[in-house]
Amino acid sequence: xxxxxxxxxxxxxxxxxxxxxxxxxxxxxxxxxxxxxxxxxxxxxxxxxxxxxxxxxxxxxxxxxxxxxxxxxxxxxxxxxxxxxxxxxxxxxxxxxxxxxxxxxxxxxxxxxxxxxxxxxxxxxxxxxxxxxxxxxxxxxxxxxxxxxxxxxxxxxxxxxxxxxxxxxxxxxxxxxxxxxxxxxxxxxxxxxxxxxxxxxxxxxxxxxxxxxxxxxxxxxxxxxxxxxxxxxxxxxxxxxxxxxxxxxxxxxxxxxxxxxxxxxxxxxxx
Length: 271
Hints:
This protein is α/β, with parallel strands linked by helices. The chain has helices spanning 36-49, 67-81, 108-121, 154-163, 184-211, 225-229, 242-254, 264-270, and strands at residues 2-7, 11-18, 21-29, 59-64, 86-87, 97-98, 125-130, 133-139, 144-152, 217-221, 237-238.
């Protein structure tokens, strides 16, 4: 079994795979400051709750966009699971080529999604991840990741509404019955959800037009991706486990090479 970890701005998502089958999935908040011991104890408890034995974990891989948690998280994996993880970044084999102007600027989350999109759906493919940020990326038929768009996620927009305005309340993010809202809550929901739908449709159409890849497949993932994908005919597939699958695929491409033995701080300096 392998443990795959997606450390995002809101949550850290863990997945346990046996071959290509996901055996368990669980989450922690990434915004909470933890020591390596706290990460380790919580992780052991979650593995136990999912009936996963530590001795059965043969390898670990991490993609993180939250550098401040990595020292404690990596230390906990070494101390409590006895494994040094692969860390998605420069130097790791992915199976795709990044041809943007500065490849080192591409976030690990984008790389993982691109790998999974290309491996599972072939190129050309556009992957849209509805996470804390909403990201759009294209991998062409040659396996080249050559462009991407990043916009505020729907939760960021919602948070800005109720935190930066005096009278607007915190609300549940869901599609209202009609865009013709008649009170505050549904008015906010209409703006957030239909605004995201409109943005998504326009960006897909514009990226297809300017890239010339008008027939490429479009795959959505991420927490709120299902709700948006249902309303956007340009999206061909909704794949909730795309990021986890991408981590598993990258692990398989690197498993014959030992993870670097340097600390996470050293990795940052090297890259």
